[in-house]
Amino acid sequence: MPTQQPRRTVRLDELIDERPVGGFHVLVLALTGLVMFLDGLDTQAISFVAPAVAKEWSLPVAALGPIFSASIVGLMIGYLVLSPLANKVGHRKLVIVATALFGVFTVLCAVAGNETQLIVLRLLTGAGLGAAIPSAVALASEFAPARRRSTFVMFIYCWLALGFVAASLISGAVIPAWGWRPMFVLGGVLPLVLALVLLGLLPDSPSHLLPRNAARARATLCRLHPGLDPQTEVLPAESASTAEKPRSPLVELVRRHWLASTALLWLAFMLNLGVFYAVQSWLPTILGRLGHSPSTAVLATALTTIGGIAAALVIGPMMDRRGPFGTLGVVYLLGAVFVAVLAFAVTGQSWLVLGAAFLAGTCVTGGQMSVVALATVLYPPRIRPTGVGWALGIGRVGGILGPLLVGFALGSGTAARTVFVVMGAVLLVASGAVFALARVSRPVRAGVPADSRTAAVDSVRPVGLSAGE
């Protein structure tokens, strides 16, 4: 009687990690990158649309503040309240529904008849964006081999920055010729079209599907691994975890094992976003007050974004090869230096301003992309979307306070040079937070089976996380 061969098993994370980067990865990156691109397009376009709205409706300049803030508040709602729904409905469904919703609400903005309607619609649009982004990031990171995870996340965040650039170019062509309403029509139709594409092509998270629908999970994994043996059983990545009753992802983030790591990550997010939005909001005004031409002010602000895109091509692979914590800590240290250089450059020649703005952007904008990638490495798959969503949401507190504090400082007579020096000091604190995060998260990262291969991202050595990580 023939002996029955034992059935082969493989853990989900091991299966994903052993696959080379191929066409399936390109598809996932393209789809999630397009979601990020439309977020950047929408976020930046309002900066050009709002003044045109104020002119048509004869609104005072102060009325622009609520219009700008509405989408930021909406994003926080999406990040903090809606993104955790992915654990129940799945990343695919949440991304598709949220993309369609922010498309619908953006189109409705085109027919808004007064300030109140526009503010409400912008808030709802932001909520849709905030719900979609963490799941898009989670999908890109989950299908990425651990050795390429930071690079994948940095790549799709480059599309967010490209959306900023595209908004400037499109707004400059559309608004003078046809007014502000067509910008909302375009900004709403594109997500609706993308939602249809996502419906047909976007895969769902295997870690979400395995406990719920093994057949669908295997079908998704066969797209990633066409040669997957039908007799091979795929086990969830968390199958080796303890028998402790699972907590909600949000509770997990702030319980004793993760509390210190989560707090330090949120601090890094807040500090980075505070500097980022302060630079984006005030650099044109500061340069104008110091006598620089409008073209120099616009180009310098654009270069802070372009610098981040260029840096991402280097920082992402460095995070994968040298370790995400040490790499990001150094990025923030360099950012402190470059922002300090910008402090002294703003009173100099235009070429000096442009060069300093580019360098500052490599670490301020590039750092913002990097800290999101760090969050995907830090948290295991089960709590990753909630972890990324809440880090982005809490980080928006810094994004709101940064421009407000800079405005207060400038209004009270503080020199622009001093303001930039303080921003540099803020990045020094962010660097310290990341290095501290590397240390306090080491035990929990080493002891969480759900992401046991994360250590491979921190170091090519199988044991002994380095001090720099």
Task: Walk me through the topology.
Layout: E1 9-11, H1 12-18, H2 23-57, H3 64-82, H4 86-89, H5 91-109, H6 115-142, H7 149-178, H8 181-201, H9 206-209, H10 214-224, E2 233-235, H11 249-254, H12 259-289, H13 294-322, H14 324-345, H15 350-378, H16 384-411, H17 416-440, H18 442-447, H19 454-458
Parallel strand pairs: 1-2
Helix pairs in contact: 2-3, 2-6, 2-7, 2-8, 3-6, 3-16, 5-6, 5-8, 6-7, 6-16, 7-13, 7-15, 12-13, 12-15, 12-16, 12-17, 13-14, 13-15, 14-15, 14-17, 15-16
Shape: globular
Query: What's the tally of helices?
Result: 19
Task: Identify the CATH architecture of the largest domain.
Answer: Up-down Bundle
Helices and strands, in order, run as EHHHHHHHHHHEHHHHHHHHH
User: What number of domains?
Assistant: 2
Widest sheet: strand ordering: 1-2
Low confidence ranges: 239-245, 448-469
Mean of residue pLDDT? 84
Domain Major facilitator superfamily (MFS) profile: 28-442
Subcellular location: Cell membrane
Membrane topology: Multi-pass membrane protein
Pfam families: MFS_1
Can you walk through the features of this model?
This protein has 469 residues and is mainly α. The chain folds into two domains: 9-214, MFS general substrate transporter like domains (Growth Hormone, Chain: A); 249-458, Growth Hormone, Chain: A, CATH 1.20.1250.20. The protein is 77% helix and 1% strand. The protein has helices at residues 12-18, 23-57, 64-82, 86-89, 91-109, 115-142, 149-178, 181-201, 206-209, 214-224, 249-254, 259-289, 294-322, 324-345, 350-378, 384-411, 416-440, 442-447, 454-458; strands at 9-11, 233-235. It has a two-stranded parallel ribbon. Helix 5 packs antiparallel against helix 8 (181-201) and helix 15 packs antiparallel against helix 16 (384-411). The model is unreliable at 239-245 and 448-469 (pLDDT under 50).
